[in-house]
Amino acid sequence: MPNTVVEGRTLSLSRPDKVLYPEAGFTKADVVEYYTSVGEVLLPHLRDRPASFVRAPGGVAGKSFMAKHVPPGTPDWVAVREVHRVDGSTDRQVVVQDLPTLVWAANLAALELHVPQWRLPREGRADRLVFDLDPGAPATVVECCAVAGWLRDRLARDGLEAWVKTSGSKGLHVLAPLRPTDSSAVADYAERLAREAAEELPELVVHQVPRKLRKGRVFVDHSQNAWTRTTAAPYTLRAKARPTVSTPVTWDEVAGCEHPDDLVFTAGDLAARLERHGDLLGPLLDSSRAGRLPDGG
């Protein structure tokens, strides 16, 4: 079992040659290398947010599972925090605060990193709004781009700036930074805008959950604004056939999208994009750009 030293922490890497993405020949060592390469831009989006991991120890062709609990054998230097649950009880979750923790998680085959819209210790006080745009076949990310543009303009009417990233799967995430606001108010506002989108774009948008309603349209999922829900973090890998990444994109790229492949990015694409653009979601971390809900939140 080889060891590696990350910022002064010695980590044992188990089975680094294990292929986790067979279609791409992408190994656990490649996952560790990828997360190390994007740590500088990824970590600020994870910091102080309790993490949920999608783990795939046998690779993406095998079983994967969502893990919220602290794994057995977690090193004592990994940050663990108490998190309240809906029923009033508390749970303990990992908070990815530094690069050694990120590499440790990658070694667990934690391919996907999901976090809530709020930071500890301000549970349930959202500092961002998110819409998850999910296309129902034969609709694709191309249709999602049209909906994202509508949401951007609609949010702007309420004084909120929007940014966008791919989900790393089929759709897009539209996000807006907020002054810390009660999550229930954010969820209500997001639902209202999703309904407006469905009313104004009835042939393109659906805001209801049943999949039978989504055929050929884009489901505007507003539910991830609830304080108990999480969203795939920026720059996370996804447990798909290929090592696709939830990648920040420009609004010009959204406007110019003509084919689904135009907005598909894998781990190997990120170095060049970061060199060219830096962190396109950096404004989400800038409190001076955070907006207020139109009713005050």
Automatic annotation (TrEMBL):
InterPro entries: LigD_pol_dom, NHEJ_LigD. GO terms for molecular function: DNA ligase (ATP) activity. Keywords: Ligase. It comes from the Bacteria. Residues 27-280 form the DNA ligase D polymerase domain. Its EC number is 6.5.1.1. Coiled coil: none annotated. This is Non-homologous end-joining DNA ligase.
